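The following record pairs a protein chain with its ligand, fe (ii) ion.
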Amino acid sequence: MYQDTRKRLEALNKIGIALSSETNVSRLLELIVREARHFASADAGSLYLVDLDKNCLLFEVAQNDTLQKRTDLKPETFKPYSLPITKKSIAGYVAITGETLNIPDVYNLPPKAGFEFNRDFDKRNRYRTKSMLNVAMKDTEGKIIGVLQLINSTDSQGKVVSFGTSIESLVSSLASQAAVAIKNAQLIKEIKAVFEALIQYSVSAIDARSPFTAGHSKGVAKYTMALARALNDTHEGPYANISLTPAQLEELNYAAWLHDIGKIGVREGVLDKRNRLSDSEMEVLTNRFECIKASAITETQKKKVALFQGGGENPLTIRELDRELAKQISHIDQDLAFIKKVNTGAFLSESRLRRLEEIHQRRYLGVGGQERNYLTDLEFENLSVRKGNLTKDEIEEIRSHVIHTENIIKKVPFTGDLKRVPFFAAGHHEMLDGSGYPRHVRAENIPLQTRIMTVADIYEALVAKDRPYKKSMDPIKSLAVLKEEANSGRLDKELVRIFIEKRIYETKEDG
Ligand SMILES: [Fe+2]
Ligand SMILES: [Fe+2]
């Protein structure tokens, strides 16, 4: 209870400071109602916001000390609803006229008032609303953005009394401060929403350059956030005392969404490489093998002509030449079939590599009479990859995405609570035992946030649709891979344990 105006003004000032530092809209609305109730010794209070698009008042917050003390309070007691803006309801009247309504007893409204009090809530909850102070919340331009409603002022004995007139202007001033704070918080929320949407759409577009990575960042952010929240709920093990604040969670969310943005610097052909040779490269190679066959036929024809010209056209020798040609053509076809197999295979055995080497070195007479190899050096390099289908250079190019990510995000002015976004994102391919990349740092230099992302990243990549270097894996096998990685000291054991035990892998949507 505030004894005099000076004390009330001081309190008002303090409330103003508290309001201006809260940027989360829902927490801010709760704070406004709580402080106003405390200020005016009100048992209950509600807050409505004007929705101009729908021409209605949205019931946002309700607090009621008496009801909240009850053990049988139902969760739906204060469920949100909307109210048309008309002069028939008390809140609607205030939202339209901007007048302050200080009512001693809402069950005894003056007949000429024009508005009514709806007793449904009281009946449902065995509550008696009596005194009520309603003030309009006006922004700096005098526009009404909401209505603050204080209910049942209580005296020092807890008896419901009328709201004193002396308090009206103070509550009104508090409501105006609150209106400014709400506008600011809404503005911040809108700017954040635009920024987030921009990040999400651009990252999704980059991911969609290849069907192999489409939806990847979204999935990683989903698992990352679910794992981080689960970590906050864990009260045992090495992370029992870890609790990431809402600001830290927001920072992590940005890092997870942006972790692969650097893939924009990786060529599509590499990102999207399905086979060792691309379709067009394979077409060139197939055409060349047709030429090799044609060249073999021409050579045989030449030999036959030479025989005729020399007068030694022995049918046996001719047949010999034809047999030789048929064998040659069959070999060329077999070589091409073998190359086609190698082209789509995931592994290349030692014996296959040797055969590939032989084909590479084989020579034919090309156009212009020049001798050429069956395979170009580049084709051989691509085909002779032992595992997967990426050459060393291409693997390096893909790995460079982490550096691109860091360079790109560093240019985004992430400050304050978000300043470590580039740092967290840049380490998502580092492993605890130092076997990761690009910096090969070890556990002590890998922050928890990055470790969370790494678990999420690997799992998403494993279960996602077919990738260039592997088929998609089912969840059980993928979780086994995570466990294996944790046991070998590459991934954080505790995070993998939580990921599996809390079924983070089943997370459908973020949120
Ligand atoms: Fe990555
Ligand atoms: Fe990734």
